[in-house]
Specification:
Elements (H helix, E strand, L loop, with lengths): L9 H6 L2 H10 L8 H14 L4 H15 L48 H4 L6 H17 L12
Helix pairs in contact: 2-3
C-alpha cells in the first residue's frame, strides 16, 4: 500500500483491507465509514482528484487571502490613475448610466449620439428573407441537429 501514489488502479484498491482504505482516506482529510465497496470508490476518486491543476488552487488561495486581509478588487474602486484636471467633483458612474456620445474634440457646443434611433431600429433582414432563412435553418437542423449554431436559435 502506497498512500502517496496517485496512479493506484481500482483493482489494486479492491485488494486492500478496510483499515488500509480508511487510513488512505484519513490521510487525505476524508473520514468515511461504510462498506468496503464504498471505501474503494472513495479511495479511487480521491486518488484521481490528486491530479488537479495546482494553478487553480493557488488562485483560489490568493483570492481567499486577499479577501481575509481586506484587499478589494481593482474594479471595485474608482479610477485613480487618470484624474481629470479641469473637473473637480467628478463621481464614478455605471457604464449603463452614461449614454455613448462622440468625443468633442472641437470646441463646438453640439454633441451627437453615436447610435441614432434610425440606426438602432434598422433590420437588414426583410420578412421575405427571414422566411427563407427560417426554412433553411429548419432543414439544416434536420441534417445536423447537434450543431453549435442551433444552441442559440429558437425555431
Amino acid at each position: 500500500m502506497d498512500p502517496g501514489d496517485q496512479n493506484t488502479s481500482l483493482e489494486e484498491f479492491k485488494t486492500w483491507k478496510t483499515d488500509n482504505l480508511q487510513h488512505y482516506l484519513t490521510m487525505r482529510g476524508l473520514t468515511k465509514e461504510g462498506t468496503k465497496d464504498e471505501l474503494v470508490a472513495l479511495c479511487f476518486s480521491a486518488a484521481k482528484l490528486g491530479q488537479t491543476c495546482n494553478h487553480v488552487a493557488s488562485l483560489l488561495f490568493k483570492l481567499e487571502s486577499s479577501n481575509r486581509y481586506g484587499m478589494g478588487a481593482c474594479t471595485s474602486s474608482a479610477c485613480s490613475w487618470v484624474v481629470p484636471k479641469k473637473v473637480k467633483d467628478m463621481q464614478p458612474k455605471l457604464l449603463a448610466s452614461m449614454p455613448p456620445r462622440k468625443s468633442n474634440r472641437s470646441k463646438s457646443v453640439k454633441s451627437r449620439t453615436l447610435m441614432p434611433t434610425s440606426r438602432k431600429s434598422f433590420n437588414p433582414i426583410t420578412t421575405e428573407k427571414g422566411e427563407i432563412l427560417s426554412s433553411f435553418a429548419i432543414a439544416m437542423r434536420g441534417i445536423l441537429p447537434n450543431a453549435c449554431i442551433f444552441r442559440g436559435i429558437i425555431l
